[in-house]
Design a protein that fits this description.
This protein is about 70% helix and about 0% strand. With about 850 residues, the protein is mainly alpha-helical. Among the domains are: about 5-170, Tetratricopeptide repeat domain (Serine Threonine Protein Phosphatase 5, Tetratricopeptide repeat), CATH 1.25.40; about 255-320 and about 325-350; about 430-535 and about 610-615, no CATH class. Helix 35 (about 620-635) runs antiparallel to helix 36. It holds the Pfam family NatA_aux_su.
Length: about 850
């Protein structure tokens, strides 16, 4: 439909209904208009009105059923599908859809019975439908399984196995069913051994085999002695059967300890080292949760490096006599590469940088080395060096999209948005620039860019990027619409049900959470200081006034060129629109003219910089929409409830703020620094609004009861002191939270709060090892001292202390910053490759 004539279409539909209220056709058309605009609730109402007039209209019933499953109106979907089946009982898709409806509604027995009834109606399955029939058998077994009818599902699979074409799917389903029957563990073991013979690197098959043999721990990571012995015997056996399987060698590292672990790890890492596989550290990183295994891996790699430097070969494996192991030509490089990541992980930044420098010396043309160097520099707080290393890695392989993305991320985090966009645009279509990244739903780019704009306080542009991510997830949900009929027609029933369940948890994805969290923070800033967004022009004028005459002249020239460019783009767009209108007119006259995709007219963005988004009348109302979605789908993440609390507290919704506090307590406990701050702030707000709440006795009673329960009879200052005594030694952030709340409750106690951080929480002599600190935490404490507590002297002293611990930090002006400059080394390769814009090379001298 032509967007310009959409309102005219609605008006005609309304006039049609007004002229004939009992016309099912008019109501159906009205519903189709709403469906086209994705207003499904209104479309469903229109379809139901049409069905009141014509109850057996198949077309309307089909459209209604698709909308009901799209909106997860399962009970309505069951009712509609029952009606359709009654109207056309011979139609296969009606039986299948009827079964799916009852399956999703929890009526497993009825769904299985419907599938059996339809199967019995078929006299003979034609060869062309053999695979569809096979899928229906497996789906019926799944329905029986989820309905708790394990024996029936097994018997059905056994009697129908000759008709099932998906042999792997059959084995997986039988294994899953057998595991649910304690008396069938031997049969389950046999099934999973068959599956391992097909794919010995599938971790799910290994888990199923261990479960069948009762070798899975009751608690995570805690096996009995008997289980450990059984696991060792099992994987010794599997290692002989599948000597080339990586999983068979890797899994024992999870349960082996002490000397057995060291020997197994030694044998495992050599293959990666000799073959030069960069992912070794990523593979073993999960083991670092155990300090003993972390230290053992570090010692092992150091021992291998010493042997390699001394003898030129790796030492023999334990309990194996003979000459040292032969090594690959770059074994030393990959050991150093691992050690660089190992030292970075345990907080030994100096050793990590030394190791990565040796890697550069071994092979200065290996991109992976510079990627690790960039990561180490980022963790150390040297963002300039992180950018230089990431851009160097990107310049060594211009066709590697991962390296390009890493360089763009580093640039965004340093605040160089324009350079980051130029970097990311290398992989977009020619001429399409950054719009291509949005069309490709490149969410990491939009989130990083949005956060960079937040740091610049350009909130409109930030919202433009972040809300684009939110829109992607709306599109993901909309994309399932066409599959409701397609999957039933193609009989991919198990995949269809899996897709529906995935869509139900779609908004739990971390990309959605990160984008929504950042957008909520922007709305909170807009609510706190709306003038800063509304008076952006005044702020720009004030910034211009600080420039020298020459700088101001250059800036005005730049803006003039941008205005001219925008004017030309607008004229080009108008010309393209005119040409498109002419082409449309010719097509109507019977002379079709095919347009290429690149020349097709695209609707111009009316708000490219998000200025209208930043001028929203009620920022908190917009934030609430995101909060509701996060509470429903990301309630297991603390940040959701922290932001929900901020929004509801500002809106004066104390009960909802209390709900956020209680859920935060459930997620992270009262010992978490952020949760502690929420508790105190809520109790303080409840006391401040006590008179207003008294007008609602029930609300007042609930709040008073919860406050008394949390505080356990203490006043807020005593509660805060108890938290400091109990948790102050756990981390820097715990002490900072206690200090912040001390100043919050009594502004006169700010000097004392500063001393809580500087004396009890100081880096030097404060009881905290430097390895236990994170650069981001130290930066947050500095901002707390400077902004919240307003103590410039304390912030300066903290910065001096941090500069000794975070010696590479740009924020703390550490003495050992890297000052990387790869621009000279990159000049020649860029010319040889003939790539003019391979990278606007980074020279980051301080």
């Amino acid at each position: 439909m032509d967007p310009s004539k959409k309102e005219e279409a609605y008006e005609l539909a309304r006039r049609g209904i007004k002229n004939n209220l009992k016309s099912h056709v008019t109501w159906h058309v009205y519903g189709l208009l709403y469906r086209g605009d994705q207003n499904y609730d209104e479309a469903i109402k229109c379809y139901k009105n049409a069905l009141r007039i014509d109850k057996e209209n198949y077309q309307i019933l089909r459209d209604l059923s698709n909308l009901q499953i799209q909106m997860r109106d399962i009970s309505g979907f069951v009712e509609t599908r029952t009606t359709m089946l009654a109207l056309k009982a011979s139609n296969k898709s009606h039986w299948i859809s009827f079964a799916i409806a009852h399956h999703l509604n929890g009526s497993h027995q009825l769904a299985a019975h419907a599938l059996k009834t339809y199967a019995d109606m078929q006299e003979e399955v034609p060869p062309s439908e053999a695979y569809e029939h096979s899928e229906m058998i497996l789906y019926r077994a799944l329905v029986l399984e989820e309905g708790g009818q394990i024996q029936e599902a097994l018997a059905y699979l056994d009697t129908s196995k000759d008709l099932i074409k998906d042999r792997v799917g059959l084995l997986e389903q039988r294994g899953r069913l057998l595991l649910k029957l304690p008396e069938e563990r031997e049969a389950a073991e046999d099934v999973y051994r068959q599956l391992l013979a097909l794919n010995p690197d599938n971790y799910k098959y290994h888990e199923g085999l261990r479960t069948a043999l009762q070798l899975e721990p009751e608690q995570q990571g805690k096996w009995s002695e008997e289980q450990l012995q059984g696991l060792a015997e099992l994987y010794d056996e599997l290692a002989k059967q599948y000597p080339r399987s990586t999983a068979v060698q890797r899994i024992p590292l999870d349960f082996k300890v002490e000397r057995a672990f060291e020997d197994a790890a030694d044998a495992y890492v050599r293959r990666f080292i000799n073959k030069g596989i960069p992912s070794l550290f990523s593979d073993l990183k999960a083991l670092y949760r155990d300090p003993a295994k972390r230290d053992a891996l570090g010692s092992l790699m150091q021992r291998l490096l010493k042997s390699l430097e001394k003898t030129g070969a790796l030492p023999p494996l334990h309990n194996q006599e003979g000459t040292p192991d032969a090594t690959g030509p770059e074994a030393k490089l990959w050991i150093l590469y691992y050690l660089a990541q190992h030292y970075d992980k345990i907080g030994q930044t100096g050793d990590a940088l030394d190791a990565v420098d040796r890697c550069v010396h071994e092979d200065p043309e290996l991109p992976d080395v510079y990627t690790v160097q960039s990561r180490i520099a980022k963790h150390a707080g040297d963002l300039e060096a992180a950018v230089a290393a990431a851009c160097k890695a990107e310049s060594l392989d211009l066709a590697d999209r991962y390296l390009n993305s890493s360089a763009a991320k580093a640039l965004f985090r340093q605040g160089r948005i324009e350079d980051a966009e130029a970097m990311a645009a290398k992989f977009t279509k020619h001429g399409d620039q950054l719009n291509g990244l949005t069309e490709m739903q490149c969410m990491w780019y939009e989130i990083e860019c949005g956060n960079a704009y937040i740091r610049r306080r350009e909130y409109g542009k930030a919202l433009k990027k972040l809300l684009a991510v939110v829109k992607h997830f709306e599109d993901f949900q909309e994309d399932q619409f066409d599959f409701h009929s397609y999957c039933v027609r193609k009989m991919t029933l198990r995949s269809y049900v899996e897709m529906l369940r995935m869509e139900d948890t779609l908004h739990h994805n971390i990309f959605y959470s990160k984008a929504a969290w950042a957008a909520i923070q922007v709305y909170l800033e807009l609510d706190r200081a709306p003038a800063s967004a509304a008076n952006a022009a005044n702020a720009q004028s004030a910034a211009d006034a600080k420039l020298s005459p020459e700088e101001l002249k250059k800036l005005k020239q730049k803006r003039r060129k941008e205005q001219q460019k925008q004017k030309k783009e607008a004229e080009s767009a108008a010309a393209a629109e005119k040409e498109a209108a002419k082409a449309a007119g010719k097509e109507k006259e019977g002379t079709p003219k095919k347009q290429s995709g690149s020349s097709a007219h695209k609707e111009k963005d009316a708000d490219p910089d998000g200025e209208q988004l930043a001028k929203v009348a009620e920022p908190l109302a917009e934030a609430v929409k995101l909060v509701r979605m996060l509470k429903e789908h990301s309630g297991d993440r603390l940040q959701t409830h922290v932001l929900a609390f901020e929004v509801y507290l500002r809106r004066g919704k104390l009960l909802l703020a209390l709900q956020a506090v209680k859920r935060a307590l459930a997620v992270s406990g009262a010992g978490h620094p952020q949760v502690h701050c929420l508790v105190i702030r809520f109790c303080h707000a409840a006391a401040a609004q006590q008179e207003a709440v008294k007008e609602k006795p029930v609300v007042a009673e609930v709040i008073e009861s919860e406050v008394q329960q949390v505080l356990a009879g203490k006043i807020l200052a005593q509660y805060n002191e108890a938290f400091l005594e109990k948790h102050g030694g756990e981390s820097l952030l715990h002490r900072a939270a206690a200090a912040e709340m001390m100043a919050f409750l009594d502004p006169q106690s700010k000097p004392k709060a500063v001393q809580v951080i500087l004396k009890r929480g100081g880096l030097v002599g404060g009881g905290l090892a430097a390895e236990a600190l994170k650069h981001a935490d130290a930066v947050a404490v500095h901002r707390l001292l400077q902004d919240t507590l307003g103590d410039e002297a304390g912030a300066k002293e903290w910065k001096q202390r941090c500069s000794k611990v975070f010696r590479w930090s740009g924020f703390f002006e550490g003495a050992d910053r890297l000052h990387l400059d790869y621009s000279k080394a990159d000049a020649a390769p860029a010319q040889e490759n003939g790539v003019a814009d391979a990278m606007k090379k980074v020279s980051l001298n301080s």
